[in-house]
């Protein structure tokens, strides 16, 4: 029974993570904590092992979805690599700081973080885009399937700085970092949502390799659970990438917002009730 549950968790997390650029960790980490602590199906895992195991899965989710997005030509490789210059070191530091968490504090901080991101998405249409970045030292252009042209850009130092914070949360919470990076790319740097999601998954793949290596070194990975989660996550990521190409941009943002606020409320409740 426990292996079926793990495969289904991986499938759902991979699909959802690839669809909206989260990476899937926002599903895997709470699921491992919940099933381990509140049911008899899985071994009770601490936050360190749940995060470390999740980040190993993010490698495969990120790779699978990136390969799918490559076919749709929505991955901005240069931007992804610039972001990774900040996200890589940040993810290592986050993985080290994660050692100080107990379960209650982990749930509280993780939950509040999810709610904060969902709030940003709720007010995104009321926030004036920072058009000045269109004239930044680094600019890109993208034409979508309907022929609409987008211009976006960002100062490389600022982009790497934001990515550092994203990488830190990735190593800290095991979420891949897309939950913060996608809104930042859309709101601040004016990325088209589909490009933001695809590029986020490319960055998730790169940063997950670094942060998971740190957690492996610290002994924070349950390899049996990881092996059960990987097949579902790989298949789900391909399905999520396919659905992404069929949905409108507004739908992607709405899905992301609803998912984050529900998970955030649940985790905060768990953190307060212990």
UniProtKB/TrEMBL annotation:
Pfam hit, one: TauE
GO annotation, cellular component aspect: plasma membrane
Membrane topology: Multi-pass membrane protein
Protein name: Probable membrane transporter protein
UniProt subcellular location: Cell membrane; Membrane
Organism name: Bacillus salacetis
PANTHER family according to UniProt: MEMBRANE TRANSPORTER PROTEIN MJ0441-RELATED (PTHR43701), MEMBRANE TRANSPORTER PROTEIN YJNA-RELATED (PTHR43701:SF2)
Protein family membership: Belongs to the 4-toluene sulfonate uptake permease (TSUP) (TC 2.A.102) family.
Source superkingdom: Bacteria
């Amino acid at each position: 029974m426990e292996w079926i549950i793990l495969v289904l968790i991986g499938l759902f997390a991979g699909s959802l993570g690839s669809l909206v650029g989260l990476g899937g960790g926002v599903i895997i980490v709470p699921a491992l904590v919940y099933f381990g602590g509140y049911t008899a199906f899985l071994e009770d895992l601490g936050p360190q092992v749940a995060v470390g195991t999740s980040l190993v899965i993010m490698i495969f989710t990120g790779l699978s979805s990136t390969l799918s997005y490559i076919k749709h030509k929505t991955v901005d490789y240069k931007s992804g690599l610039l972001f990774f210059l900040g996200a890589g070191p940040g993810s290592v530091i986050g993985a080290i700081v994660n050692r100080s968490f107990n379960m209650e504090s982990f749930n509280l901080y993780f939950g509040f973080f999810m709610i904060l991101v969902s709030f940003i998405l709720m007010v995104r249409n009321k926030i004036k885009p920072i058009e000045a970045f269109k004239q930044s030292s680094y600019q890109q252009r993208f034409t979508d399937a309907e022929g609409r042209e987008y211009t976006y850009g960002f100062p490389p130092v600022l982009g790497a700085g934001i990515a550092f914070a994203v990488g830190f949360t990735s190593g800290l919470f095991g979420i891949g970092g897309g939950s913060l990076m996608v809104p930042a790319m859309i709101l601040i740097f004016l990325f088209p949502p589909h490009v933001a999601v695809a590029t986020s998954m490319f960055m998730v793949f790169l940063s997950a390799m670094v942060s998971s290596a740190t957690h492996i070194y610290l002994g924070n990975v349950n390899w049996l659970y990881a092996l059960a989660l990987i097949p579902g996550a790989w298949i789900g990521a391909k399905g999520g990438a396919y659905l992404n190409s069929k949905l409108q941009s507004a739908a992607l943002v709405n899905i992301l917002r609803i998912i984050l606020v529900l998970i955030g409320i649940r985790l905060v409740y768990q953190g307060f009730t212990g």
